[in-house]
Amino acid sequence: MRIIHTADWHLGQELRGFSRGAEQERFLAWMVAQCRAREADALGVAGDVFDQANPAAEALGLFFRFAEALRRAAPGTPLVAVAGNHAGATRFDALAPALRDGMRLVGAVPRDPAGRAGLLVPAGDGHVLAAPYFRLADLPLGPGLDAAGSRAGALYRALWQAAPRGGRPCVLTGHLALQGGSSSPDSERAIFIGGEQAAPPTIFPEEACYVALGHLHRAQSFAGGRVRYSGSPLPMSAAERDYGHRILVVDAQADGRVEVEEVEVPLPVPLLLLPVAGGIAPADAVEALRLRLEGLAAASPPRELQPMVELRLALDGVRPAAAAQLREDIARSGLPARVLEVTVLRAATPGGGDGPAEAAPAMARPSADELFRLAFREAHGDAPGAPPRAAFAEASEALSADAGAAAPGKD
């Protein structure tokens, strides 16, 4: 069987106030063409189809137009998409009946064990076991189940045992952070499983021929390549511009052998950093941007497809209005670019001068989990055990879901 593995589309996302809708529409059209040309037996989306728990009408429209285009162009390629931590499980399950036959959305793990067999989706000569993001309430309790790995691993085993596969190859999906994974703090919300932020790669059933994961935006693999993140198909922040965005074409044989082809995604909008290293003088910034844009293919793209740029200014003195002034200069120049951010760097040499510029040091911001552990230790004189960690994780998850549903934008 052949599965196309992708994840973390984040439909409806905005980057510094700029809509990503035009980019995402072009990616989805490319995705339909890939499914048709490669005759895939299933398209697996491992979570975070949407950027918010309560998607806006634009994001919903993008998704349903894509699903219909896929059904028409590649009727032999069912869509199998699971909920992630951004797209709320309840809303995801509510959208499922609106899809045509052959399209599956899985929002939450069924509480009734008898219903878990329905997570197994036929795909060619094998199956996809569509496991979504595990919420705290989904995880089993019992002796020895006091850590992220043990509780999540027990649930994966329960789902695996509930699904009659008949000896055929099976691809397992998931949406979580694994220990040792490379994360993107600018755009990935910390998620908790059983009170911990990451689980070991050993939690998945060994019988799964391939594990298709979402959540981490950089493509990466574990367990000799059997467990993989596809990464996000588009950069979700400026920090992700050099990630090498891709989809993964997975061919699983009846004997369990798996071959994975990495297919680069053509990015509709360049995401630029100017300069690549150090800083640039304000007087030279507009001309440097002009020269950089001349090297791009599209000379006059529409506004929604103009390159996005992050600029770094090197100053030899205090100029509070330098960033705002540069934004105005770029706007007056008429250059086809959208400015994401202007960062002011300080001179590295004593007293300023013409030395190389470097970013002023910034204090690391502790995570909510770290703050909780510090506060608990201060109040009780010891580190929190599993029950208080689990209670805090549940409260954090509920607050994150409420915030995502109430207000659009970066979270």
Structure commentary:
By secondary structure, the chain is α/β, with parallel strands linked by helices. It has helices at residues 21-38, 57-73, 89-95, 148-162, 282-294, 322-333, 368-380, 386-406; strands at 2-6, 14-15, 18-19, 42-46, 79-82, 103-106, 120-123, 126-129, 170-175, 210-214, 220-222, 227-229, 246-252, 258-264, 271-274, 308-315, 338-347, 357-358. A six-stranded mixed beta sheet has the order 6-5-4-1-13-14, covered by helices on one side. A six-stranded mixed beta sheet has the order 7-8-9-10-12-11, with no helix packed on it. The longest helix has 21 residues, at 386-406. The relative contact order is 0.12. Mean pLDDT is 85; it is low at 348-364 and 402-411.
Task: Map the helices and strands.
Blueprint: E1 2-6, E2 14-15, E3 18-19, H1 21-38, E4 42-46, H2 57-73, E5 79-82, H3 89-95, E6 103-106, E7 120-123, E8 126-129, H4 148-162, E9 170-175, E10 210-214, E11 220-222, E12 227-229, E13 246-252, E14 258-264, E15 271-274, H5 282-294, E16 308-315, H6 322-333, E17 338-347, E18 357-358, H7 368-380, H8 386-406
Helix pairs in contact: 1-2, 7-8
Number of helices: 8
The tally of beta strands, per DSSP, is 18
Q: What share of residues is helical?
A: 25-40%
Mean pLDDT: 85
Oligomer: single chain
Instruction: Decide which structural class fits the backbone.
Output: alpha/beta
Q: Per DSSP, what share of the residues sits in E-state strands of 2 or more residues?
A: 15-25%
* Cross-sheet strand order for the largest sheet: 6-5-4-1-13-14
**Pattern of helices and strands:** EEEHEHEHEEEHEEEEEEEHEHEEHH
Rg, Å, rounded: 23 Å
Q: Which regions are unreliable across 5 or more consecutive residues at pLDDT < 50? A: 348-364, 402-411
Sum up the overall morphology in one term.
Answer: globular
Q: How far is the first residue's CA from the last residue's CA?
A: 37 Å
